Amino acid sequence: MRLAASLTPLFLANCLFATPALAQHIDINTLDDTTAVEIQAEVKSKTFYWSNGLDAAIFSTSTIDRPGDDGALTPLRFTFFVNYGMNINHDFSNNFGVFSGLGIKNIGFIEKFHALDSTVKRRVYTLGVPLGIKIGNLGKRNFVMLGGGADLAFHYKEKGFIRRGNKTKTREWFSERTPLIMPNVFLGASFSPGFTIKAQYYPGNFLNKDFTQTAAGVKVQPYASYQVNLFLLSVGIDIHYKKVRLIAPKDDGKRTM
User: Fold this and answer.
1) Residue ranges per domain, the chain?
2) Does the reported pTM lie above 0.85?
3) Percentages helix, strand, coil for the chain, rounded to the nearest 5?
4) Under a CB-based contact definition with an 8 Å cutoff, are residues 53 and 85 in contact?
5) Where are the alpha helices (H) located in the chain, listed in sequence order?
6) Which residues, 6 or more positions from 137, have their beta carbon under 8 angstroms from its beta carbon?
7) pLDDT at 142
8) CB atoms within 10 A of CB 206
9) Does domain 50-247 have CATH number 2.30.40.10?
């Protein structure tokens, strides 16, 4: 937690400043009238633009089917580090558009064993590609969005403990404990000036039932009887990077725009 707290200011700064420039400055004093008009027309007709895919805070739970506990909901999990991405957008009109992009998410679930007073926390970092549509007032950022995507799980971590003691940890790159690709569907909304809320569901099993490991010389499949489906609710912000700002000329008798 200390590491997360210390990195939070850097993460927020990255969201604001380490992305493409919010505006491109053009001094029209150096342009002739024809060129200036052409620039204005190009700006008005521009329909592709980048935006921030920042999920920020993610609340998650899951349904879990396991021996002796079918269909239960797992404890609520919260994470804000690291959930970040960039989207490319195309608006066909002020009321309909599409988007895709690339983003990183921290997703997982918490498993409780009440009889043993023990807890197991499992999570993966994923690199995902969404594909969705937007319907509403896109200019004022008031719209609904829906679609689907696929996440690539590239780092797995499992942490277990009994009564907050006897901790065990497992970390693996591209682990076979989970599927490599995790498809998902989502439904969300944006509210002016750019606050977003999104619900996400993973229809596939979070754990790989075929995963095999050797314990005490015996091969076992620890997740063979597990079925875990994630539900996510994210709250974030949406920053657009599309504007071209024309610097107005000084009042020196030249034509202004």
Assistant:
1) 50-247
2) no
3) 10, 60, 30
4) yes
5) 2-17, 33-45
6) 94, 95, 143
7) 95
8) 24
9) no
